[in-house]
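Quick question, first post here. What does this chain look like in 3D?
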Amino acid sequence: GLCVDIIGGAVVKPHSRPYMALIQGPQRNLICGGALIKEDWVLTAAHCKVEGGRVILGAHSQTAKEKKKQSFDIAKEIRYPCYNSGSKEHDIMLLQLQKRAKLNKAVKIIDLPTSDDDPTPGTTCTVAGWGKTQNNRRKVSDTLREVNVTVIKRQVCNDNEHYRKNPVITDNMICAGDKKGGKDSCQGDSGGPLRCNNVMRGITAFGKANKCGAVDGPGVYTRLTKQYVQWIREIMGG
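> Answer (accepted):
Ran it through. Tokens below.
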């Protein structure tokens, strides 16, 4: 249950994040977010339990009937081969859709990063999702929300006032939150893209259970390293 809604954020202008994918379970319940990276491929987190689920593109509201929504069954789910749910290392997965999305104003592809620059501590990044807006509430957000978070040094993230190396925040991860707390991703946001300077740099991965927005438990994101991007391109065939 450490899967990481958006804490301290605001609702985005409808369809202004056209690369966002909403992943729902068999009961139309929110499972995770994701990013459309090719007409028929969505990038998300490996810990997302997507079996029997579907992907909705062009969504703003989870529940409202929206003309711009496109719904897809999942043809293939491909987790990164070395994903480890214990160490939380390599939390990245590709979903192939049953058919190609029709690209338009509400549904667009987000580019993979061309370099694997590690965002420097202090960089402002944004994360979006339909997840929880408060820790103690079971309810998730009906509409897509986004929040700014600041990149935190791994050394700080691993110290005794934060994750205490349990799990270890590695070079394959980005740690980001707010010094004062109150800005974070949360349950239901997992799999969504972390964007820094308008480039996708990470995937929402995990936080501390029931401590979204807490100073000692900033959000942790899978970093889109060269290794991962190469794997993604190989799987997608080019």
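Helices lie at 154-157, 226-236.
The mean pLDDT is 94.
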